[in-house]
Specification:
Layout (H helix, E strand, L loop, with lengths): L1 H14 L5 H8 L2 H12 L15 H9 L29 H12 L13 H13 L3 H11 L3 H11 L3 H21 L1
Amino acid sequence: MNDTYADCYALLASCFQHPDDAFVNAVEDGTLAATIADYAERLDIDDIESPPEFEESPREVYLRTFEAFDGEYAPPAESAYEAWWDGEQRGILSGPPASDMENRYEALDAEVPAAYPADHISLLLEYASLLLEADNREEYAAFHGAHFDWLPAFRTRVEETASSSFYHWAVQTLDRITAAAADDLL
């Protein structure tokens, strides 16, 4: 079960990265849908729909949804949704969650990719995937509790600001999978 959640997290991480040609092809040719359906079946998770195709240029939709390209957006980074060191919520990046993730990556002797803040949802999912692959359930439970509590607010923000049905699906699926993981693994 850990390996399936790990694989699922790694796949979901790709949904929140800048879409490259391979990812767009996986959406268009049904590979993403088939893989998500397989993971959901193996994990006994109901109500996971197939991802819709992009209605417009995937890059433009990504930028509009997550990077303030054109109006309201949903930052895909935990710091924007969490209280900072002084207990205030600022809605900006590079807060305590990013600092924690920088320390975690440093402990692995890994670098945070320059394209994303350290607490970007893709990096959080990839890190959680590593913990599950290593069968470190105790550390995963602590990580899940510390770094996934903001996901409902992220989902709401995407649903309120994004017009892309693909990213609505992505946050709904993320919410469903992480909730199932909490039920199964914590």
